[in-house]
Amino acid sequence: MGFSIIEHRTKLKTEYTDFPQEKLRELKDRGEEITRNLEVPLVSYLGDTAAGPHLVRDDVRKSKIIISECTFFEPGHRGRANIGKHLHAADIAEWLRVAECEAMVLVHVSRRTHLGEARAQLFETLREEDARRVHFLMDHRNNKQRYEQQLAEATAGQPAS
Asked: Is 10 in a helix, a strand, or coil?
């Protein structure tokens, strides 16, 4: 199960970008189609799922944010993940090689798995640039540290109130 939230935008066709406003208005009044529709995937959510072609559909692969389950992290548990129709850390590593997301938020980590261990297992398999995009939803400690760093960066150089 899953869904994608897609923003629909209207953009001026490239062949008209240098036209003056009056000419564009004239073309439009004559019934000329001067715009094109653009779909921008913003967020994709995937619940319990096995790896498959649905992970690389354009609306999922190109989403700015992907929220997905990842239940298994232990190297020997990939078979269990497949049987239960869940994703394994190795699936996430493969997926991130083609996903264009700014951030991937992992949810539904097994209760038997400590988040620190899950993070270590996952980051062992990821490229550094991919690891920076992965966040765990229930990882309060790291989420708080990331928030505090973002806050410090946002307020740097601003006068104290």
From this structure: strand
Q: Please report which residue ranges of the chain form alpha helices under DSSP H.
A: 21-29, 58-61, 78-83, 89-96, 115-125, 128-131, 140-155
pTM of the model: 0.76
Domain boundaries of the chain, sorted by first residue: 2-6+41-140
Contact 27, 16 (CB under 8 A): yes
How do 103-107 and 2-12 pair as beta strands? Answer: unpaired
Burial status of residue 14 (CB atoms within 10 A of its CB: 0-12, 13-18, 19 or more) = exposed
Assigned superfamily of 2-6+41-140: Ribonuclease Z/Hydroxyacylglutathione hydrolase-like (3.60.15.10)
Q: What is the mean pLDDT of residues 126-146?
A: 81
